[in-house]
Design a protein that fits this description.
alpha/beta, 23% strand, seven-stranded mixed β-sheet, Rossmann fold, two-stranded antiparallel sheet
């Protein structure tokens, strides 16, 4: 990763080996989705990140503070028209085109809240499969019941079934699929993004609403009932998939 020595936390800080949202750097209306991701990735990244990692659509590389402890090398790739500055890019890449990377190179590929912004999703997943070594892990997160963002580069929403189908179609075996948020989280998110536009009191109301909902959904030792795949109102999904080895390929 370029300029790794100058990397600074943007969305998340690492405290006691866990990700925590830096709330001053995030819109209050997005505290809850970010907190859910922080909780999930605090467990998944140490468990699945290893070897050579490709952070695809990396932005400001917000998860580097946690995952770099578990990998040997980091490669950052993103497209040039991103709204974010990219001081750590190793590769400027149109994600709708074949990746300018060698096959069977990486042990881990991270694609977080990027797939919905890509027009050619089949191309991305095919290319991730190509650059991963057999047995390598693909960690991908996508929103579902979530507002339009980074317009006009917001193209798709995936159900858990659609995402699983796509991954399996292109040579992956899904190992974990985590559902984020239930109808209460979605309602909180919608209210926050609406109320936040109200002058004066809007921001204060959003902050209090977010704090209460984060306490409910993210407090320690809470049974993760909202992770049930039968949950019909998720904010989004996080999936870990393993590239099939040659002896495991579908016929």
């Amino acid at each position: 990763m370029k300029n790794a020595e100058n990397w600074q936390p943007s969305i998340y800080a690492v405290k006691e080996s866990r990700l925590e949202v830096i709330r001053k750097n995030v819109s209050p209306s997005s505290w809850l989705p970010c907190s859910l991701i922080a909780n999930t990735f605090s467990t998944l990244l140490p468990k699945y990140c290893s070897g050579c990692l490709l952070d695809l659509g990396c932005g400001k590389v917000p998860y580097y503070g946690l995952y770099h402890h578990y990998v040997d090398k980091v490669t950052c790739a993103d497209w040039a028209n991103s709204y974010h500055e990219n001081p750590h890019l190793d590769l400027v890449q149109d994600l709708n085109q074949p990746l300018q990377l060698e096959s069977n190179t990486f042990d881990t590929v991270l694609l977080t809240d990027v797939l919905e912004h890509v027009s050619e999703t089949d191309m991305v997943i095919t290319e991730v499969s190509r650059v991963l070594q057999p047995g390598g892990r693909f960690i991908v997160s996508v929103p579902f019941l979530y507002w339009l963002h980074e317009v006009p580069y917001d193209n798709y929403r995936f159900t858990c079934y659609g995402l699983t189908h796509k991954l399996e179609k292109f040579g992956f075996e899904v190992e974990e699929l985590i559902v984020h948020g239930s109808w209460g989280a979605v309602l909180t998110d919608l209210l926050s993004k609406g109320i936040g536009r109200v002058p004066l009191l809007g921001n204060l109301l959003v902050r209090n609403l977010q704090r209460a909902t984060i306490w409910y959904f993210c407090r320690k030792n809470k049974p993760p009932k909202w992770h049930d795949l039968k949950n019909a109102f998720p904010l989004g999904y996080v999936c870990v998939a393993k590239k099939r080895t040659l002896g495991n390929e579908s016929s």
